[in-house]
Structure formats: C-alpha cells, structure tokens
Amino acid sequence: MNEYELCLALLNCDTEDEVIALLSDAGYWTDRDAWRYFGDLENNWSTIGNQQSSPHAALVEKLVNAVDATLMGHCYAAGIEPTGNDAPRSMRAAVAQFFDNTTVEQNPSAGLIRTWPASKRTHVAQSITLVATGSKSYPCFTISDAGEGQIPDEMPNTLLSLTRTNKMRIPFVQGKFNSQGDCAMLGNLR
Fold first, then answer.
1. pLDDT of 123 strictly over 90
2. Residues forming a β-bridge with 130
3. pLDDT at 109 over 90
4. For residue 163, which of 50, 39, 51 has the smallest C-alpha distance?
5. Residue 114 backbone phi and psi in degrees, to 5
6. Chain CA centroid to CA 82, Å
7. Residue 62: its pLDDT value, please?
8. What is the mean pLDDT of the segment spanning 124-149?
C-alpha cells in the first residue's frame, strides 16, 4: 500500500482499533522512527488537554478552523499574503472581497451571508464538509475543507504544531491560539 492509498484507507476508519490495525499492517505502528511528539513537544498535554470541555464546542472549533482555511485559501489564490497590509482587516471584509467581489465600503450589505440567495450559500458551503460515520454511541467525525491546503513537509509547522503564531497576525480569521483542540476532542466525544 503506498502513502496515498494509506491516507485514503485511514479516512475510512471509524475506530481507533481500525487505525491501529491499518498502521500495524503498513509497518508504522511499532516503528518509533515514524512518530514524533505532537508539536515536537514531549510535554504537550498541558496544552492539548486544556481544550474545550464540551464536545459540541470542540466540534464547532474544528468547523471554525475550516472556515479560516477556506478564507486563507481564497486570500492566497488572490495573490495576497494573509498577514500583509493588503489582506482583509476582518472576517466580513474577507467574505465581501472573496465571495462578493466588492468591499463593505462600496456595498453596505457585502460580506453578510444572510443576504445571499440560497443557491449561493449552498455553493459556498460545499467547500466545507462534515461527515459522521461509525456508530451512534461512538461516532467518527470527518471534517474536510477546500481551503489553503497543506503539504506533508509543512504539517509539523501548521496542523501538527502547538503554541506557534501561525494565524495570530491574520486579522480575518477566528482561530488564533494554535492549541490544537482537535486532539482533545477525541476524548471529549466519548
């Protein structure tokens, strides 16, 4: 099984046991050289374990991150550095610029999703997906977005980093703390 096939197979796992079996079969589970500490910090539990105590809030946090990634993807596609002076100064300004092709100053209702026709809301919403699989008592949630994208070599600096300033200077995103509540969510949903 190549890495692409392994990734797709992992996406189809609904339980920890399925993940462990798949990684064991691929030779990764017991290979200590294949693993590193989350955030490259051995003592990372004080950050990861101090996240949302409510499973609902933890799930919403992941969706907020998907919205951030989508807005950042549009920013990069427009050739704008998200931390630069040309970047939108608020989430509403980003929505106005990237989805309404205008500014709030030019159009007072720009950036207000509630003013969009249902067809536009549906079209834009299709860039973020939440899928629930598994059983009712042990659900498995998969969230995907068509946002900025990540290359494998950068994942330790982005998705798998802790306490970095990745999004701190991006004015139009909500998730700025880089505390990776995603990890804590696993235990909270049980």
1. yes
2. 143
3. yes
4. 39
5. -65, -20
6. 16
7. 87
8. 91
For the chain, list the strands marked E by DSSP.
128-134, 139-145
Structure confidence at residue 71 as a pLDDT band (50, 70, 90): very high
Count of C-beta atoms within a 10 Å radius of residue 34: 11
Q: How many CB atoms lie within 10 A of CB 11?
A: 11
Question: Do residues 66 and 128 touch, judged by C-beta distance below 8 A?
Answer: yes
End-to-end CA distance of the chain: 31
CB atoms within 10 A of CB 187: 12
Percent of the chain residues past pLDDT 70, beyond the cut: 91
Whole-angstrom Cα distance, residue 39 to residue 156?
7
Enumerate the β-bridge partners of residue 143: 130
Indicate the burial class of 96 (C-beta count within 10 angstroms; 0-12, 13-18, 19 or more): buried
Q: What angle do CA 128, 133, 138 make, to 5 degrees?
A: 125
- The contacts of residue 79 (CB under 8 Å, 6+ apart) are none
> What's the pTM value of the predicted model, to 2 decimals?
0.82
- Hey, how many other C-beta atoms are within 10 angstroms of the C-beta on 162? 18
What is the per-residue burial (b if ≥16 Cβ within 10 Å, else e) of 61-93?
bbeebbbbbbbbbbbeeeebebeeeebbeebeb
